[in-house]
Amino acid sequence: MINKKILVVCSENSGRIAPFIEEQVNALKKNGLQMEIFGVKGKGIRGYLRNRKLLLQRINGFQPDIIHAHYGLSGLLANTQRKVPVITTYHGCDINKFNLRLIALFPLIFSKFNIFVSQNQADKVKLVRKKYEIIPCGINSTDFFPLSKIEQRKKLNWDLTKKIILFSSDFIRPEKNANLAFQAIEMLPGYELMELKGYSRDELRTLMNACDAGLLTSIREGSPMFVKEMMACGRPLVCTDVGDVRIQIEGVEGCEIVGCDPLSVKEALERVVQVQQVSYPSIRLKANDNNVIAEKIRQIYISIIE
After folding, report:
1. How far lies 239's CA from each of 28, 63, 131, 211, 249, in Å?
2. Per-residue pLDDT tens for 170-200?
3. H helices then E strands: how many in the chain?
């Protein structure tokens, strides 16, 4: 398996490759694989398919053994050629949103192997799924780990008496359901909701360790990175029951799964902020480590190449 070539196909529409994809690629490189990334520029089916000529040129130049596409649209593009076997990873919206699920039917059928980041994704396409495995994206333990809450607050010049709740994303994304978070925080004097947008890994680690709790109020998710990053930092969490959240935090003191009503979110936040540091089961933390995830993916590559 040493020196085998893997071409990763994924969106670059935000101006960069998604950090969790880059980190997975770097973890796979450590296993002796030659990894290259083809960044797609263009939105929607037409935008992605306009990249076909460039993709074919990259395939001819790099001569990959496998193409690993991330998200359904990338899987669609990758499968327009039949020379190189394709693995497609589905991350959430590509299966959870009905219109994107229709697009994903093509790579679901024609990919050599499919990876879902949570079981509920796989269940939504059980009539057409073929060979597949559940493998969430991982995190780097060198990026996310517990630090002193007080020290990180001093570093940020935060009020030590105020309750800071870290929201899982930026406020404008409709699937993140920020209105539910706003309504809950309005009932909590002395609490502040902080938007998570545009931060580096180092900045994220500081914010996560400095906050009193994390809040995820999404209406749909795959395997939210926010939850796994907060877990690695040992921070309390309040989450709606989406994606693989229940698998990650159920039964852990300092974490609560709530319904989509402001009062339950408010009451859960009041309880979890009393917990200064959360002890997550080591088996769950290890399962989220990028090195563990990379080895699972490497084994899939082996099964296809050999």
Report:
1. 31, 44, 31, 15, 9
2. 999 999 999 999 999 999 999 999 999 989 9
3. 15, 11
| In contact, 167 and 178? CB cutoff 8 Å | yes
What distance lies between CA 112 and its chain's CA centroid? Answer: 23
Tokens representing 113 are 């192997």
Domains of the chain: 5-138+289-305 (3.40.50.2000), 149-286 (3.40.50.2000)
DSSP β-bridge partners for residue 39: 10
Q: Which residues of 7-45 are buried (b: 16+ CB within 10 A; e: fewer)?
A: bbbbbeeeeebbbbbebbbebbeebebebebbbbebeee
Residue given tokens 């088996």 in the structure block: 283
Q: Which of 123, 112, 65, 105 is nearest to 88 (CA)?
A: 112
Structure tokens at 89: 């990873």
Q: How far apart are CA 213 and CA 207, in angstroms?
A: 10
Nearest Cα residue to 169 out of 217, 209, 213: 217
Mean pLDDT of 161-171: 96
User: What angle, rounded to 10 degrees, do the helices at 201-210 and 225-232 form?
Assistant: 70
| CA 306, chain centre distance (Å) | 29
Q: Has residue 1 got a pLDDT over 60? A: no
Both structure tokens of 46: 């037409």
Contact 35, 70 (CB under 8 A): no
pTM, full prediction: 0.92
Tokens of 197: 């947008």
- Average pLDDT score over residue span 225-251: 97
The closest of 64, 70, 69, 62 to 83, measured between CA atoms, is 64
Rounded-to-integer distance, Cα 108 and Cα 152, Å: 44
